[in-house]
Amino acid sequence: MPLLLPFAELEVGKHLYWQLGNLKIHGQVFLSSWVVIGALLALVVVGTRKLERDPQGTQNLLEFLWDYIRDLSREQIGEKAYRDWMPFIGTLFLFIFVSNWGGALVPWKLIHLPSGELGAPTADINTTIALALLVSLAYFYAGLSRKGLRYFEYYVEPTPIMLPFKIVEDFTKPLSLSFRLFGNILADELVVAVLAFLVPLIVPLPAMFLGLFTSAIQALIFATLAAYYIGEAVHEEHH
Amino acid sequence: MTSWLLLAEAGVPEGGLFDLDATLPLMAVQVVLLTFILNSLFFRPVGRAVEERESFISTSRADAKQKLAQAERLEADLKEQLKDARQQSQKLILEAEQEMDRLYRDALAAATADANASREQARREIDSQRDQAMDRLNKDADQLGDLIVTRLLAAS
């Protein structure tokens, strides 16, 4: 690598490989995702240790989040089914949000890995595809469990002409979900890294703030679209 | 600068941006586990707390509404009673005034009659006394006349 500044090194596409049997996994993604999950669980455990009728401190924050996630899922999924899917939507939102912000705010570069570098778990295509496929499974399961085989009527509604488009949609949904998240987060990290490499002081700050904004928006978009797809699958046509 | 662009290209034997491997399913399993953990640690307890509070608030509101209605009913009741009492007292006052008036008139009439009676009596007494006095005077005058006549007759 021609880059020598310690905080502005760019390592894209390098991974810390762990060998698991004969499977290879990206160690840096798991390390940072454990940090993210640990932070989330710590917050949740601290906040729900003593739930009271008059919320105090962390309970306020958790109830705010709960309310936010409930509103999001109720709006997209609908009054009837949102309760079953709220934990999934909420977990997606919280995991992606904390991953994105953790990638932007935690000074990962201070920790040196033998290969690759720590960063937002969502900047790895494996993570985003995993999340997107989970969403696909979720909406298929939601539709099939609620409507049984009648779920497939959705493919020919309002007219059978829609059939090929709806089938293509089943592939484009996870594709667009995963690539949008992956692209935004990776691009943000790259922009900040390139700017920090060119001008280490001050100049990257606006890009960093923009990155925080994008990160939050991406988490919201992912969760909202996931909820929307599930809502579409469980939606009952009124004949 | 170009090195990371090269690395980003597909076809790099080891690594690369689009390096899919066992990270994908393991991450999916991890997220599903996280969903279940967060469901039991976060979504269910917080949801219960929020819904308990909501039901507490709505029952308290219903209670308060009921109490308010009761208070309003009591107030109307009391107002009605107060009005009745006022009317009653008004009637009592009127009656008392009429009674007083009547008593006053009675007393006045009695007193007037009394006064008239005593005046009449007094007048009758005066009259009788005057008659007696007149009688005596007449008698005296007669006696005097007689005396004068006898004296004059004796003298002549």
UniProtKB/TrEMBL annotation, chain A:
Entry GO MF terms: proton-transporting ATP synthase activity, rotational mechanism
Coiled coil: none
Protein topology in the membrane: Multi-pass membrane protein
Keywords annotated in UniProt: ATP synthesis, CF(0), Hydrogen ion transport, Ion transport, Membrane, Thylakoid, Transmembrane, Transmembrane helix, Transport
InterPro entries reported for this sequence: ATP_syn_F0_a_bact/chloroplast, ATP_synth_F0_asu, ATP_synth_F0_asu_AS, F0_ATP_A_sf
Location of this chain's protein in the cell: Cell membrane; Cellular thylakoid membrane; Membrane
Predominant cellular place of this UniProt entry's protein: membrane
Gene Ontology cellular component annotations, sorted alphabetically: plasma membrane-derived thylakoid membrane; proton-transporting ATP synthase complex
Family label: Belongs to the ATPase A chain family.
UniProt-listed PANTHER family: ATP SYNTHASE SUBUNIT A, CHLOROPLASTIC
Full protein name: ATP synthase subunit a
Organism whose genome encodes this protein: Cyanobium usitatum str. Tous
Gene assigned in the entry: atpB
TrEMBL record, chain B:
UniProt feature coiled coil, ranges: 61-132
GO cellular component, one term: proton-transporting ATP synthase complex
Keywords: ATP synthesis, CF(0), Coiled coil, Hydrogen ion transport, Ion transport, Membrane, Thylakoid, Transmembrane, Transmembrane helix, Transport
Molecular-function annotations in GO: proton-transporting ATP synthase activity, rotational mechanism; proton-transporting ATPase activity, rotational mechanism
Membrane topology: Single-pass membrane protein
Transmembrane segments: 22-43
InterPro entries hit by this protein: ATP_synth_b (IPR034679), ATP_synth_B-like_membr_sf (IPR028987), ATP_synth_b/b'su_bac/chlpt (IPR002146), ATP_synthase_B_chain (IPR050059)
Pfam families attached to this UniProt entry: ATP-synt_B
Subcellular locations according to the entry: Cellular thylakoid membrane; Endomembrane system
Protein function: Component of the F(0) channel, it forms part of the peripheral stalk, linking F(1) to F(0). The b'-subunit is a diverged and duplicated form of b found in plants and photosynthetic bacteria.
Subunit structure: F-type ATPases have 2 components, F(1) - the catalytic core - and F(0) - the membrane proton channel. F(1) has five subunits: alpha(3), beta(3), gamma(1), delta(1), epsilon(1). F(0) has four main subunits: a(1), b(1), b'(1) and c(10-14). The alpha and beta chains form an alternating ring which encloses part of the gamma chain. F(1) is attached to F(0) by a central stalk formed by the gamma and epsilon chains, while a peripheral stalk is formed by the delta, b and b' chains.
Family statement drawn from the similarity comment of this UniProt entry: Belongs to the ATPase B chain family.
HAMAP family, per the entry: ATP_synth_b_bprime (MF_01398), ATP_synth_bprime (MF_01399)
Protein's name according to its UniProt entry: ATP synthase subunit b'
Originating species: Cyanobium usitatum str. Tous
